Write a sequence for this structure.
């Protein structure tokens, strides 16, 4: 196990302890994304706002390599009623070559319990 992997795992542990959880959160295998400098990538996470759950950035990426360009909710259809299912979309822009990871936590809005963690590893290459 290399130093970066240990640091990432320790960081996620600290976040889960800080955000809090009453059990073990489901953690899927990290998703690897290859980008070039100046590419924009959108992470789309399914959500139903009326469920009371939210996606948060639990472990932000290293801002030397990639930055957040914002977060929006996109309903599944144009005629969707308030609270209907859709996607939380987080946009990121690659700044320079390197590797960084971002972790998202799915949790009840007013709770520290984390139900699920999604992790994205960005591998950024020169143009």
């Amino acid at each position: 196990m290399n130093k970066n992997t240990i640091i990432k795992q320790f960081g996620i542990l600290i976040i889960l302890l800080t955000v809090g959880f009453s059990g073990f959160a489901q953690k899927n295998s990290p998703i690897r994304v290859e980008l070039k400098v100046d590419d924009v990538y959108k992470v789309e996470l399914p959500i139903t706002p009326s469920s009371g759950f939210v996606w948060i950035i639990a472990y932000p990426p290293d801002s030397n390599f990639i930055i957040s360009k914002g977060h929006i909710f996109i309903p599944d259809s144009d005629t969707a009623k308030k609270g209907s299912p859709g996607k939380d979309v987080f946009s990121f822009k690659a700044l320079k070559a390197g590797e960084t990871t971002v972790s998202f936590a799915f949790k009840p809005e007013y709770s520290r319990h984390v139900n699920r963690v999604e992790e994205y590893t960005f591998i950024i290459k020169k143009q």
Remarks:
- The beta strands are 26-27, 31-36, 40-47, 53-59, 66-75, 86-94, 98-108, 116-125.
- Helices lie at 3-19.
